[in-house]
């Protein structure tokens, strides 16, 4: 049954026979195909003759057809039965047309260089195209693979292989460069992160130290005041209980309570003054760190943080030394005032000097300058505190 479909194909339309009719010369064609051939023959006559001559498309013999036309030709029932049985069976080894159902691809279109079926040539998109049978087309294209193989193995493809190898080599080199850059980025930002983490720890440590200084400043005073308040409450309780004592007990206790009250009242109370923290971290970060380049972060010094407070003294000098102390105090006040004026001038230009030092000074010079700046700030606070104490002392002496 191999290539059996060729025996079932109409030689005119190259499709499986449809309504096969047999000519007197024993050749079989599709009814519609013979109708087309007959119509072409009738067009040569002015009137329709009683017997219509028809030339067989296969053997070219002249056959006379009755006036009823192709309907007068007998049906090839044996062939039609074979075709029906053939169409009912599956033929996996036969390639059929994807556009026309169960029509075998048995013709080669020379224009489109592809296999087509008979319907493609008659009613499909290949109508009117030049065609060839499979065997002839095969013999013509049989040597094509060898020619293609020669084209695919010439110097062009050798150069292409070398180009691919070169591109892969360049790609590998570029990928190594990218990987190296990734490692550089990771290392750079790791070092930067470590530096920032170290600076952050130093800042936090400095602030913890300031917190400890604040505790040292306030906790003793708070404890001392709490102790005085407890003594006050105790004396209030004792004073209240005196009213219930007998005269004897009353007289025994009242003088002691009076003395304790006087002693308690004579204890000086410190004046509450706010503690200043300098320098302030926000100002340092905002005015100095924001102007620092990333590469200079390692060289930036963390300023030493301190506190300062202005409080009244807990005791006063004896009255017999008033005049001498007042005279000394006035001289000191004058000296301190001059120094304070110089410090204020220095502080007004501190921002400008910071910018100059960050550009012109070396790391060692910058360290010395920052240390000097901190010392000047400390000196200013000490002098302000001393001036305040002298002012209160002089006022106390004058009022007495």
UniProtKB/TrEMBL annotation:
Keyword set, alphabetical order: Metal-binding, Zinc, Zinc-finger
InterPro entries reported in the protein's UniProt record: Znf-RING_euk (IPR027370), Znf_B-box (IPR000315), Znf_RING (IPR001841), Znf_RING/FYVE/PHD (IPR013083), Znf_RING_CS (IPR017907)
SMART domains with a match to the protein in the record: RING
Keyword Metal-binding: yes
Segments forming domain B box-type: 92-134
Signal sequence extent: none
The organism's place on the tree of life at top rank: Eukaryota
CDD domains, sorted: Bbox2_TRIM59_C-XI, RING-HC_TRIM59_C-V
Location of the RING-type domain: 10-60
PANTHER family in the cross-refs: OUTER SEGMENT 5 (PTHR24098), TRIPARTITE MOTIF-CONTAINING PROTEIN 59 (PTHR24098:SF14)
Protein name: Tripartite motif-containing protein 59
Organism placement in taxonomy: Eukaryota, Metazoa, Chordata, Craniata, Vertebrata
Encoding gene, per UniProt annotation: TRIM59
């Amino acid at each position: 049954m191999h290539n059996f479909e060729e025996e079932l194909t109409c030689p005119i339309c190259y499709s499986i026979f449809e309504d096969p009719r047999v000519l007197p010369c024993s050749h079989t064609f599709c009814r519609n195909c013979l109708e087309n051939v007959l119509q072409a023959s009738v067009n040569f006559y002015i009137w329709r003759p009683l017997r219509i001559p028809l030339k067989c498309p296969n053997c070219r013999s002249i056959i006379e057809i009755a006036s009823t036309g192709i309907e007068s030709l007998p049906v090839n029932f044996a062939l039609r039965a074979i075709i029906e049985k053939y169409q009912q069976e599956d033929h996996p080894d036969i390639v059929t047309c994807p556009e026309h159902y169960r029509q075998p691809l048995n013709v080669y279109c020379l224009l489109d260089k592809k296999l087509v079926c008979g319907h493609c040539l008659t009613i499909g998109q290949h109508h009117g195209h030049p065609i060839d049978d499979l065997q002839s087309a095969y013999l013509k294209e049989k040597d094509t693979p060898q020619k293609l193989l020669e084209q695919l193995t010439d110097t062009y493809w050798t150069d292409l292989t070398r180009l691919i190898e070169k591109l892969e080599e360049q790609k590998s080199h570029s990928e190594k460069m990218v990987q190296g850059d990734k490692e550089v980025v990771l290392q750079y930002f790791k070092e930067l992160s470590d530096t920032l983490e170290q600076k952050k720890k130093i800042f936090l440590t400095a602030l913890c130290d300031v917190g400890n200084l604040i505790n040292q400043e306030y906790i003793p005073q708070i404890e001392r005041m709490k102790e005085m308040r407890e003594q006050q409450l105790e004396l209030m309780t004792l004073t209240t209980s005196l009213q219930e004592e007998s005269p004897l007990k009353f007289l025994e206790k009242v003088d002691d309570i009076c003395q304790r009250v006087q002693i308690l009242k004579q204890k000086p109370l410190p004046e509450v003054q706010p503690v200043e923290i300098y320098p302030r971290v926000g100002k340092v970060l905002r005015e100095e760190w924001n102007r620092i380049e990333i590469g200079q972060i390692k060289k930036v010094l963390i300023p030493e943080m301190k506190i300062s407070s202005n409080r009244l003294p807990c005791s006063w000098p004896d009255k017999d030394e008033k005049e001498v102390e007042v005279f000394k105090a006035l001289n000191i006040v004058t000296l301190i005032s001059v120094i304070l004026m110089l410090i204020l001038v220095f502080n007004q230009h501190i921002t400008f000097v910071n910018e100059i030092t960050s550009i012109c000074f070396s790391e060692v010079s910058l360290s010395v300058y920052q240390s000097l700046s901190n010392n000047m700030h400390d000196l200013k606070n000490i002098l302000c505190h001393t001036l305040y104490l002298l002012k209160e002392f002089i006022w106390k002496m004058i009022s007495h």
